[in-house]
Amino acid sequence: MNKNFFTTIFFSFLLTAILAQNPNRIKEPDIMKNPVRREIIMPTIPGYEIIKGDFHTHTVFSDGLVWPTIRVEEAYYDGLDAIALTEHIEYLPFRELVKGDHNTAYTIARPRADQMNILLVQAAEITRAMPPGHIVALFVEDANKLETDEYMDALVEARRQGAFLFWAHPGWVAQQPDTTLWWDVHTQLLEQDLLHGVEVFNWDDWYPVSMQWAKEKNLTWFANSDVHPVVSHSFNTRDFMRPMNLVFAQDRSLEALKEALFEQRSVAFFLDNLAGPEHLLLELFNHSVEIGRPFTTDRNGNWRVQLRNPTDLTFRLQNLESGNGATRSIVLHPRSSVIITCPASENGQTTLQYKATNLHTGMFEHPTITIIVE
Ligand code: ZN
User: Fold this and answer.
1) For position 106, which CATH number holds?
2) Nearest to residue 124, comparing CAs of 109, 108, 112, 141?
3) How far apart are CA 196 and CA 214, in angstroms?
C-alpha cells in the first residue's frame, strides 16, 4: 500500500512538471521557416562543375528594395551557387537615406556569403543612355573608380581592374522601344575588349535577336533576374526556378567562374529554356538523359525504349523524320522518364534525330539531338 502510495505521488509530481507552462515565455520554433535550400539537380559533366548564378541583382544601395544580406540568403534558398550585386553607379534614389559608397553592398554581403558558401562577385552597373545602355561589370576591385563623366572612362577603368563586361537588357522597352538594335558603339566596345557578354533574358523578357548576336559575335549568354524587390514576391518559384546561368567552371571558385565566363562556357536558363553555344547544350542533354535498352516490340514491330531524365532540366523534342514510326513529340520533364516508340532495327541499332525546341543556339534556332537506341 505504501509503495503504491509513493509511486502515485512520484508520478503526479512528474506529470505536473511535464505539463507545467512557463507563464512568462513560451517558445514556438515551429512557426519559423526552416532554412531549407532548394537543391537543383544538374547533370554531372566530366571536367566541369556547373555553377548556378544570377549575375544581375540590386539592393537598397542603388534602387533595389532589400538589404544586401537578404540577396545572399535568397540565393542560398533558391539553390544558387553564385550571385552579383550590381548596383547602379549613376542611379541612387535612396542616397539621402542609405549612406555608403559603390562598394558598400558588397562589403556588407560578403561575410554572409562566406557563411552560406555563396560565391559573391563584386560588381556594378554602369547605367547610361543608349548607346551603350546599361553595362554590368563583374569582378571589379573598386566600384568607386567607375564614377566618371564619360562612360568610356568607366568601361576602361573596369577593364583595367580585370572586369568582365556584359550588356544588360538590350531590348529594354524604355531604351529601345521599337527595335532591339545593335549600335556601332557596341561594335567599337567589342573591338576594344570592352564587351564580353549580353543578356538574352532579363526579368520577364527575352530577346531572340540578342541570341543571334551572342552566337555571331562570340559573346557569353546571360539570363539574369535583375531583381529589385524580394525574389519570392516577384518570380513564380513554385512552377519555375528563377532565371540563372549555368556556368561550366573547372571548380567551384570565383577564379574558375571568371575564367569560364571569359571563355563563353555559360548557358542561360529561364523558365524551361536553355540558351547558349550548341556544344554546351549537347553536353547538358547527353549527360542528363539516359537511354534504356529497347525492351519490347509492339504489334507493328516497333521497339519501345525508356528515356530517363533525373535532372531538373527539361527537354522538348520534335521528331525530324516524320513517318519513321518514332514518337513525334517528346517532353522530358525534370526527374522523370518517358517511354517512346521507335522503329526496330535488324542490326540492333536505331538512330533518331530530334529538334530540341526549348534549346536555343541563335534566333529561333534549335539544335538537333541524336538518340541512339541499341
Ligand atoms: Zn540592373
Assistant:
1) 3.20.20.140
2) 141
3) 9
* Ligand 1 centroid to residue 126 C-alpha, Å: 9
Q: Tell me: do 161 and 103 sit in the same domain.
A: yes
CA 138 to centroid of ligand 1, rounded, Å: 12
Residues 124 and 178 in one domain: yes
Q: Is residue 199 part of a domain?
A: yes
Rounded distance from Cα 57 to ligand 1 centre (Å):
6
Q: How many domains does the chain have?
A: 2
> In terms of residue numbers, what domain contains 347?
288-373
Lookup: cell for 76: 542560398
Looking at the fold, whether 323 and 359 belong to one and the same domain comes out as: yes
How many residues does this entry show for the chain? 374
Whole-number Å distance, alpha carbon 2 to ligand 1 midpoint, is 80
Give the tens place of pLDDT for each residue, 79-126.
999 999 999 999 999 999 999 999 999 999 999 999 999 999 999 999
**CA pair distance 45, 206, nearest whole angstrom:** 27
Residues 158, 123: Cα–Cα separation, whole Å: 10
Indicate if 216 and 341 belong to the same structural domain: no
Q: At CA 87, angle to CA 82 and CA 90, rounded to 5?
A: 155
Binning pLDDT at 50, 70 and 90, where does residue 279 land? Answer: very high
pTM for this entry: 0.92
Report the separation in Å between the CA atom of 245 and the middle of ligand 1, taken as the mean of its atom positions: 16
Read off the CATH number of the domain in which 348 is found: 2.60.40
pLDDT score at 180: 94
Asked whether residue 17 is assigned to any structural domain, the reply reads no
Residue 246 is assigned to a structural domain of this protein = yes
Residue 367 contacts by C-beta under 8 Å, 6 or more apart in sequence?
278, 281, 282, 355, 356, 359, 361
CB of 220 closer than 8 Å to CB of 247:
no
Placement of cell 549612406 in the chain:
99
